[in-house]
Specification:
- This protein is of the alpha/beta class and about 425 residues long.
- It folds into two domains: about 1-25 and about 135-415, Metal-dependent hydrolases (TIM Barrel); about 30-120.
- About 50% of the residues lie in helices and about 10% in strands.
- It is built from 20 helices and eight strands.
- It has helices at about 1-10, 25, 35-40, 45, 70-80, 85-95, 105-120, 120-130, 145-150, 160-165, 180-185, 195-205, 235-240, 245-270, 290-295, 310-320, 330-335, 335-350, 365-390, 395-415, and strands at about 15-20, 130-135, 155-160, 215-220, 270-275, 300-305, 325, 355.
- An eight-stranded parallel beta sheet has the order 1-2-3-4-5-6-7-8, with helices on both faces.
- Strand 5 (about 270-275), helix 15 and strand 6 (about 300-305) form a beta-alpha-beta unit.
- It binds zinc ion (ZN).
- Zinc ion (ZN) binds near residues 18 and 20.
- Zinc ion (ZN) binds near residues 18, 20, 138 and 361.
């Protein structure tokens, strides 16, 4: 019986609530094996200094260079035990029909990757093979992207709010280099005053549906700490128009704008996806956003990544606040074994079965394939263990599996 729940999970379709699929990367025709590593979480094992926030845009700037064993070895040999590397290697091996990537076969795998990516149909075929039927993408290179024309009808997007929370000056920008003022100008909005800016943000949220944006995304854990205090409008206004506002005014501006977005999201019934854990590690503990969640009881927050490494604190919050749901994405890429432990607890602690959903959180479809297949494997293992331990019956596990992989996301985002 425990084997058959795993088989059931492997056959379940997925609604993937978080990817970073963007036409420039996911649909690029110029992709080789090395680039799949450079533009993946495996790259974080090599390229990022411990003192820096793990800026996601650093993965994009990978220069095109031919694959060589010397360039692959830092991932495959030096960091070969890391879970990001294991995940990606497993996915590539599966998709390209090898057991591992080795010094002997890397050239053949590289040739297959280059060939496959020349075919415009390849990304869609990989998504189909992973049985992912809908995808919510966060295209951080262009926060205004309507995903459907380029990526397809199975895509929706989120509106990333970081640039707007840093919009005290036309030249201020977030960690991806996006300027709130430039984005508003693209929508034809001229802002001269702080009040214009607030009105433009209202307009921006109203326009989400037109761009197939079905949620807001707060990724400010890469830009600042997550202590979003009560809005202090007077202090926020002091930052307006300043090239270098005082740290207090800058924080107040960003707190004020985030609060406004959360209020508007509640009014428009748009969920707010929020990155928690890691990023700027000293500022991303989930309890830092407790105040924001309490101030907006009508807003639905989708809290991400099991706030690794603070998953137990997050589960406590998800129990206490009924406007909180959890997106498990990325947590199982960081640590599959911790994910299993946390999922066992999450099943026990969640107030109802609607709360958990998952995504891949990747740039390229190969890593997405790997992530979603790994998620199925781990969810299947946890449910098997729950059945074997007598926690619940097969049919309870089956119902919960469908909810985690698909049904919860469909209901949460109101997908037809
Ligand atoms: Zn992400």
């Amino acid at each position: 019986m425990s084997e058959s729940i795993s088989q059931f999970v492997h056959a379940c379709e997925v609604i993937d609530v978080h990817e970073h699929h963007m036409p420039e990367i996911a649909l690029s025709r110029d992709v080789n094996l090395l680039k799949l590593f450079q533009q993946s979480y495996a790259a974080w094992t090599n390229n990022v200094l411990p003192s820096e926030p793990k800026a996601d845009s650093s993965m994009i700037s990978a220069v095109a260079e031919p694959t060589s064993w010397e360039a692959l070895a830092p991932f495959l040999e030096n960091s070969g035990s890391n879970a990001f590397v294991r995940n990606l290697v497993g996915g590539i091996a599966d998709l390209y029909g090898v057991d591992e990537i080795t010094r002997e076969n890397w050239e053949a795998v590289d040739a297959s990757v280059r060939l496959r990516h020349k075919d415009a149909k390849w990304p869609g075929q990989v998504i189909e093979r992973a049985a992912i039927k809908r995808i919510v993408t966060d295209p951080f290179l262009d926060p205004l992207l309507n995903p459907r024309p380029a990526l397809g009808e199975n895509y929706d997007a989120v509106l990333r709010i970081n640039a707007f929370a840093f919009g005290w000056h036309p030249e201020s920008h977030d960690h991806n280099g996006n300027s709130g003022h430039a984005l508003l100008r693209r929508l034809g909005m001229q802002v001269k005053t702080f009040d214009d800016y607030c009105a433009a943000i209202r307009e921006l949220v109203t326009g989400c549906a037109r761009r197939n944006q079905i949620a807001l995304k707060n990724a400010l854990a890469y830009d600042r700490n997550l202590s979003f205090d009560e809005p202090n409008e007077e202090l926020a206004r002091q930052a307006w128009g300043q090239m270098s506002p005082s740290p207090a005014a800058r924080k107040a501006f960003s707190d004020f704008v985030v609060d406004l977005f959360c209020q508007l999201a509640g009014e428009a019934d748009l969920p707010v996806q929020t990155h928690l854990g890691t990023a700027i590690i000293s500022g991303s503990h989930p309890l830092r956003i407790a105040g924001l969640i309490e101030r907006h009881p009508r807003t639905r927050f989708l809290l991400m990544h099991l706030a690794y490494p603070w998953s137990r604190d997050l589960l406590g919050m998800a129990f206490a606040y009924r406007n909180v749901w959890l997106d498990l994405c990325w947590s199982f890429l960081l640590s599959p074994s911790h994910f299993k432990l946390a999922l066992h607890e999450a099943i026990e602690v969640m107030p109802d079965d609607s709360r958990l959903m998952l995504g891949g959180d990747c740039l390229h479809v190969e890593e997405t394939f790997a992530a979603i297949q790994n998620a199925r494997q781990l969810v299947g293992e946890v449910l098997s263990e729950k059945i074997a331990g007598g926690y619940f019956r097969f049919r309870d596990a089956e119902r919960l599996a469908v909810r985690i992989l698909c049904k919860n996301a469909s209901e949460f985002f109101g997908l037809s």
